[in-house]
Amino acid sequence: MWGGRFAEGPAAVMREINASIPFDKRLWRQDIAGSLAHVKMLGDSGIVSAEDAAAISAGLERVATDYEANGVAEDLTLEDIHMQTEAKLADMIGPVAGRLHTARSRNDQVATDFRLWVRDAIDQADAALARFQQALLTRAEEHADSVMPGFTHLQSAQPVTLGHHLMAYHEMIARDRSRFVDARARANLCPLGSAALAGTGFPIDRESTARALGFDGPTRNSLDGVSDRDFAIEYLTAATQTALHLSRLAEEFILWASQPFGFVSLSDQWSTGSSIMPQKRNPDAAELVRGHSGRIMGCLTSLMVTMKGLPLAYSKDMQDDKPPVFEAHDLLGLSIAAMTGMVESATFRTPRMRAAAEAGFSTATDLADWLVREGGIPFREAHHITGSAVKRAEDLGVALDKVPLADLQAIDARIDERVYGVLSVDASVASRVSFGGTAPARVRAAIAAAREGS
Ligand code: ARG
Predict the structure, then answer these.
(1) 77-88 residues labelled b (16+ CB within 10 A) or e (exposed)
(2) 246-294 per-position pLDDT tens digit
(3) Is residue 18 a contact partner of residue 75, using CB atoms and an 8 Å limit?
(4) Is the pTM of this model over 0.90?
(5) Can you spell out the DSSP letters for 136-152?
(6) What is 300-311 written as a DSSP string?
(7) Given 178, 258, 267, 274, the catalytic residue
(8) Are 63 and 32 in contact (CB under 8 A)?
């Protein structure tokens, strides 16, 4: 299609390094949609005749039908999806196909196609994350009262509820969704009509093509229009942040499913066996979600590094924008679906969680707080007294609320039997009623608010 000034064809490796059809064939729907909008505008503006525009539109519909039925061939001589489609159109309707590319370049064409594709990818991610949030809400509600150890430094810190823990992930995903929504708003401007880089002398109507493709309007600078890939980078940023959150939950599931923890049993559907050790139920899906997050981050890095040294406007390096975006999209879709399935079907072993919360002296802070409240003791001193109580419990091999009163009073005479009211893990979580706290009533309120908002 650009052979006019060439005497020789490209070397075989040149053809291969140049071709993007093996991966950009995924853009075929967007490419057809962009061309349909473009040719309608060419017809409406009188740049091509109404008759030619109608013939080209009908031909493009036939190309789409053919792609739908047979897929897109990977013909390296046709380089990319844009050339592939134009060649097919010419096969079908003859030389009039050559009028389609009037007032257009592959540079604005690919920028438009890719924005349309990323916009769809954003919508898919958002819908999948909404389903994931529903799963979190359902399980959080079920476990609004289930006590588990809360950790800092992965050491038992204070008791929390499993519902509260799951709602923490609901918060992260809410931020992720808002990042996707935000990225979509900036992505939703149409570069079509920027042409190769400088705009065009044909009397095109960029507003109408932008509107026809569901964009909010045309991009404002033709150089930026063809060379901007922020929309793809922002998509990958949101995807990376999401993957990072999924990876943290995956890591917790892996840890919790291990025998020493025993907090969760993943369903058969989300576990795999070992070919040598018959007892094994491995959390492979969670491990792969954790692994995929690294690859998604790599995709973001890849595109940022591709873009950082490019002068304006289009350079062929930019063809490498698509593989990382496609890869991240595929990995993210799998990761969200897998985590949703795992959350929906996991069996939380609440007696184990409760026992672990009770075993870790996790109500020590409650004892110190009680001494401050009831005994008027300064917190630092209360902290010290509590430390001695924990030591005593450890020596006796019992939980804090099982240390006899006489032992506690030997440490500090100001302690009386009312202290047992705050030493149980249930009393501890019930007391954390501050906004955003783990008290079951608070967790239920947070779930109700989340349901209201979604
Ligand atoms: N396949 C190219 C890409 O994906 C399309 C744009 C080609 N433009 C050009 N001037 N060679 O970036």
Answers:
(1) ebbbbbbbbbbb
(2) 999 999 999 999 999 999 999 989 888 878 787 888 999 999 999 999 9
(3) no
(4) yes
(5) HHHHHHHTSS-EEEEEE
(6) HHHHHHHHHTPP
(7) 274
(8) yes
One-letter amino acid at 12 equals A
DSSP state of 158: E
CA of 72 relative to ligand 1 center, distance in Å: 18
Helices (H), 97-229: 106-142, 162-187, 206-212, 222-227
Specify whether 292 is catalytic: no
Residue 375: alpha-carbon gap to chain centroid: 50
Confidence check: pLDDT of 26 > 70: yes
CB 188 within 8 A of CB 119: yes
Quick check: ipTM above 0.90? yes
* Chain Cα centroid distance, residue 58: 38
Higher pLDDT, 6 or 35: 35
Cβ neighbors of 408 (< 8 A, separation 6 or more) are 389, 392, 415, 419
Name the residue with tokens 């079509």.
Answer: 192
Can you tell me the distance from the alpha carbon of 454 to that of 450, in angstroms, rounded to the nearest whole number? 6
Rounded Cα–Cα distance for residues 10 and 31 (Å): 25
- Residue 273: the pLDDT is 82
Q: Kindly report the length of the chain.
A: 454
Candidates 153, 245, 271, 315; catalytic one: 153
* Residue with CA at minimum distance from ligand 1 atom 3: 319
Residue among 73, 115, 72 at smallest CA distance from 209: 115
With the C-alpha atoms ordered 310, 315, 316, 322, is the resulting torsion angle positive or negative?
positive
- pLDDT for res 454: 59
**Residue for token pair 């769809």:** 120
Residues lining ligand 1, Cβ inside 6 A = 20, 24, 80, 106-107, 110, 314, 316, 318-319
Residue (of 233, 231, 188, 180) closest to 213 by Cα position: 188
Any catalytic annotation for residue 153? yes
Q: Which residue has the tokens 């009386």?
A: 416
Taking the C-alpha atoms of residue 400 and residue 370, their distance in angstroms, rounded to an integer, is 14
pLDDT, one tens digit per residue, over 299-338 is 999 999 999 999 999 999 999 999 999 999 999 999 999 9
